[in-house]
Amino acid sequence: VLKIKEDEVYEAGGLDAVLAVRRTLMRLEIVLMWCLIAIPVAMVYALNIKGGSTESGFERITYNNANIQTKNDGTKRNGDSLARVWVTVFALYVMPLVAYPIIEKYDDDAVRDIAQEAKKARVQDYAII
């Protein structure tokens, strides 16, 4: 999808095919941005800021490690757990704010191209059945 030229796609499938390719690229761009946001969130989950005990392995980067209550063995969690929860909330607000400009650019380009395509006269528009 990254190496496809829009002119070749337009010749093969028209505007609908071009918009489908652009939509795929838009989704890839959004997922990439969300991954860039999720990596620091996972790192915050895995950190041991206060020096208390933490879970091991993949359990360190799960939301369960940010639980404010107690761990599975009944012991209290360290005090940085609340900060970990707020990092998640912050990321949940940032993700749509990052996606909105990407979607808006796609929509603006699509509306412009659809309007240009609508101005072209096609044989199907004048066919009598």
Count the helices. How many? 3
Q: Radius of gyration, Cα only, in angstroms?
A: 24 Å
Q: Helix- and strand-based class?
A: mainly alpha
Mean pLDDT: 78
Form type:
elongated
The number of distinct β-strands equals 0
Q: Main sheet, how many strands, which sense, barrel?
A: none
What features would you describe in this structure?
The protein has 129 residues and is mostly helical. The protein is built from 3 helices and no strands. Helix 1 packs antiparallel against helix 2. The longest helix is centred in the N-terminal third of the chain and has 41 residues, at 6-46. It is elongated.
Topology, please?
Layout: H1 6-46, H2 81-119, H3 123-126
Structural descriptors:
65% helix; 129 residues; mainly alpha
In short:
The protein is mostly helical and 129 residues long.
